[in-house]
Design goal:
Blueprint lengths: L13 E5 L4 H8 L5 E5 L9 H7 L4 E7 L11 H10 L3 E5 L11 H4 L3 E4 L13 E4 L1 H4 L39 H17 L1 H21 L4 E2 L10 E4 L3 H10 L5 E3 L2 E4 L7 H13 L2
Parallel strand pairs: 1-2, 1-3, 3-4, 4-5
Antiparallel strand pairs: 5-6, 7-8, 8-10, 9-10
Bound molecules: pyridoxal-5'-phosphate.
């Protein structure tokens, strides 16, 4: 939606992103022949240095698009600093918060990105099919989506075939009828997390993560994770056969995932210490 909303600006045809970002963020620019995609490499395979953004973002940059937390390393980026680098260069910042919201406290106002997006399918425990977008109020008027539908119309219930005007607020980025069952499911997840409180969720997840990290290291596994304070509850464990390990763990009722070369475990607030220990033991058996 954001990619289809930005006004075109002569001379600004670059999108700066990183090799650690999720394809959703990258592919939408790749299919736009008028855009040049600059992919920042990661020197340690875990994170990106802020200086890399400083060097790459300039007056040719239309958009800086990256994640708050990287999906395959758990590295927590300084999203406010990245948004600042984009702003200083006159570029738009788009932050993908799919792996941050629900596991760490996020204040979209203080991040200050032009667009901050997330969804309930991961840490918000609400399932797939819905996406949330926060647009900085100053940008709302400037951005007119080139894909739209009747929920974005200021006079939605006039059903006027002759005229269309965008809503004044962020609801101009809505499309058609929203998936109500999905919304109810996602509200359920959010209510549970709100009841616990995001600070307590984050503290508990830190403790669970340290238990995973300690247990895996004791068992001799090599990990691909960030150091504090950039670490989050996504732990990548190097494994010779990640899909095989995930299947074996599944047979033990342990649900984790795999990404190239690694088993990915993402403990969340509802997990117990015993479950973490059981996971480490079961993973060790897969070798
Ligand atoms: C960082 C990140 N962004 C986005 C998504 C999901 O995007 P989509 O809704 O396009 O499947 C994921 C994972 O599925 C992710 O890890």
């Amino acid at each position: 939606m954001v990619a289809e909303s930005l006004p075109s600006r002569p001379g600004r045809h670059r999108v700066v992103t990183t090799e650690l970002d999720f394809p959703t963020l990258l592919y939408q620019w790749r299919v736009k022949p008028e855009m040049e995609v600059v992919v920042l490499p990661s020197s340690d395979g875990v994170g990106i240095d802020l200086d890399q953004y400083r060097e790459a973002v300039d007056d040719r940059t239309a958009v800086v698009a990256t994640s708050h937390v990287f999906f395959a390393t758990g590295f927590v980026q300084d999203a406010a600093a990245i948004a600042g680098i984009a702003r200083d260069a006159g570029a738009v910042s788009v932050i993908d918060g799919y792996q941050s919201v629900g596991q760490i406290p996020v204040d979209v106002e203080s991040v200050g990105a032009d667009a901050y997006t997330t969804g309930p399918l991961k840490w918000l425990c609400g399932g797939p099919g819905l996406s949330y977008l926060h647009v900085r109020p100053e940008r709302i008027d400037e951005w007119e989506p080139r894909i739209t539908s009747w929920f974005a119309a200021a006079d939605q219930f006039d059903f006027d075939p002759h005229d269309f005007r965008f809503r004044d607020d962020a609801r101009r980025f809505e499309l058609g009828t929203p998936p109500l069952p999905t919304i109810h499911t996602s509200l359920g997840g959010q209510e549970i997390l709100s009841e616990v409180g995001i600070e307590r969720v984050a503290a508990r997840n830190r403790a669970l993560t340290e238990r995973v990290v300690g247990g895996c290291r004791d068992a001799g596994f090599d990990l691909r994770i960030a150091d504090e304070p950039r670490r989050s509850a996504i732990v990548m464990i190097r494994h010779p056969d990640p899909p095989g390990a995930v299947d074996a763990l599944d047979r033990d009722d342990i649900i984790v995932d795999h990404r190239p070369g690694h088993v990915r475990v993402s403990p969340h607030v509802y997990n117990t210490d015993d479950e973490i220990d059981r996971f480490v033991e079961a993973l060790a058996r897969t070798l």
